[in-house]
Amino acid sequence: MGKFKMSFLYIILVFSASFANLTGELEFKPEKEIINKDEKVCFHLVNNSDKAVYLPSSAPWAVFEDEDFDKIVFSPIAVQRILEIKPYEEKKWCWDLKDFQGEIVPSGDYAIRLTVFKNGERVFLVSKIKVKPGVAETSQKEDK
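RE: above sequence
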């Protein structure tokens, strides 16, 4: 085979492999993984597939303090209606780092779990974030 044909074949294979990695995937990630206490965290669901996925409510996410999902820290009040996320669409939510009592959560690791229905089956997608200690927490630790 000529040099041109081999180069052309390589380009097609690379392009096909790149496209194949996106097909059929859902991406759920925070804008930042390490959050300061004076910030809010926003996270996105991106439907990189060629099929629609469905959300059971307008805010189908909850924040957990542990990876076993035993201790829920916050879950927003949401309209109970099915939302469609079409192929290649994106949805964004934000959390102000407050718990159910309206207090800023302690520093530490948290898991945000999103419920999605894909091909008629419930799927949980998880993103992890770390909340950094605030200035007051850091100075209290240094005083001890």
